[in-house]
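$ run holo --ligand "magnesium ion" --emit tokens
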Amino acid sequence: MAVITTKEITKIYRQGDIEVHALNGVSIQFEKGEFTAIVGPSGSGKTTLLNAIGGLDTPTSGSVVIDGQDITRLNSNELIDFRLNNIGFVFQAYNLIPVLTAEENVSFIMLLQGVPASKRKQRACRLLEEVGLSEQLSRRPAQLSGGQQQRVAVARALASKPKFVLADEPTANLDSKSTGNLLDIMAKLSQEEGMTFIFSTHDQRVIDRAKRIITLEDGKIISDVTV
Amino acid sequence: MKTLIKIAWRNIWRNKLRSSVVILSIILGIWAGLFIMAMTLGLNEQRINGAIDTYLSHIQIHHPGYLDDPNIKSTLSEVDKLEQVAGSIPEIKAYEKRILATGMANSAGGAYGVQIIGINPVNERNLTSIHQQLTEGSYFQKYKKNPVIIGKKLADKLHLKVRSKLVASIQNINNDIITSSFRVEGIFQTNNSVFDESSIFVREGDLRKITGLMAGYHEVAIRCKSIDQTDAVLARLQSEITRDKVEGWKDIAPELGYAQEMMSSMIYLFMGIVLLALAFSIINTMLMAVLERKKELGMLMAIGMNKWRIFSMITLETLFIAMIATPIGMLLSWGVIAYFQRHGIDLSMVAEGLSSLGVGSKIYTFLPTKEYWIITLMTLVVAFLSSLFPARRALKLRPTEAIST
Ligand SMILES: Nc1ncnc2c1ncn2[C@@H]1O[C@H](COP(=O)(O)OP(=O)(O)O)[C@@H](O)[C@H]1O
Ligand SMILES: [Mg+2]
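-- output --
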């Protein structure tokens, strides 16, 4: 069964008299364990689509069904809780709480979920070890490189045991070595833990690593290839 | 909650300069506010004590019509009963029976209206502190015939010195004006220049001879062991003495009581203004802190931090700032106020003005402990209320806006 099913979602942004059709009827399904890239030129609607799937924004029409639940019907408070317990996020930047250490950042999301302290610590350390940061547990974000920060964000995204992880251009700010490193880790976690990853990118090296490539143009899917 | 506290606490120190500026402004605001309060209260206390020590005492009894129309024949009706009752009230420290007359003091320097107070010098010492406030001369010890103690202000106006002759025209019991001469034995200076200018002390016996009033008294002044006992003693006396008028210091000098009440409301108004200014500075700072962290707050909402927690975090940050500043401000204020409570603030440069207010050239600050607690509480409440606005602003952020790059 599909983890995510979108039906005919549209998103219209109104700016004064001008209407921007950011999404024009996107219907798509994602299965468990996928490692999928959403690609397309800038302004094609990648971020808008990820925001709709992630419950960060409500589409103008259409439905987003996650595990049988239509999240477009949830109010903003319900959405916050839904996101907390079902979705992991990795953003392009500003992923971490600057005043907390790497370990505390990863623990924090489990704290929000109400996981007991001892379990939090254990899981945070294990995940940080998996992303190769067991030496940097007590560093704050400012003391980590951009690539290391993104790896903490991946560990944080997994810590809440989400149904899938959304990453909007996670490598946009990284050099090629860090980009490769981050993708290795994401691919490994996808395989080992069966975690679903959906990320947007316009970096060819990232696209090459994806198992499924969905191409958007002007808010429409123009191709959907599984390799 | 523990982690939220940790985050909030660390967030304060992200912009050290900005937080320090708010903390400092709260400290200074509290300090300035409390110091002004303590100065005002101290001034008022001194004014009241000064008036009580020099002429008011705590309670005075007169013939019911005397104060409106100081007729020499309006003497007290119940002196014997009064003495009996007063003797049975342990809170009363001393009382003094006086006779009063009005007249004009003359000299080459001019003529000034004065109240002539006829006293028993030995007993009067228990009531008033004039004998301690002599700048020159002595207190009814030297001269056998008609000694007088006068205020410095009057002495200056009349160009009188110790041993000078003071000529006074006094109304006697038959409404005739009698001219008598007195010898200046002492010159006093109180904090009240009006009193110094218009009151002179003579011996009761001398004044009786001049006025022909052979019996009766115009005034009984009572001093309690402490000013706080005034109301109780007053009630007791009023229930026993019905034909004469028994009044407390607040009734006799209502301006002192009003001033006290008015100053209390004024200082709270003043403190309110200070706190309002602090509220604006807190709101401004916290709003800046929120808007500066738009993306971070958006990220927190995106990953699932609910509104209540975001709200608490901002409120906690504000409260922490207040909780750092308030005790420091209180301690600083307490130290400074305690220092000036002991040593006084020397205002001799403006003392001339203060003297007509009835206080000395030094102000001794005074602030009851209760006020420190009230202001602490008020500051924390104001900080909390000030945090609501920025915290609400944080809730209005949308995760998408906040994280879009
Ligand atoms: N908040 C917004 N208000 C108005 N227009 C927007 C907003 N967000 C995105 N858009 C528009 O929607 C279209 C799709 O944007 P986006 O989803 O960010 O594309 P991508 O992520 O592929 O670059 C663009 O034309 C963009 O200008
Ligand atoms: Mg985008």
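-- notes --
The mean pLDDT of chain B is 90.
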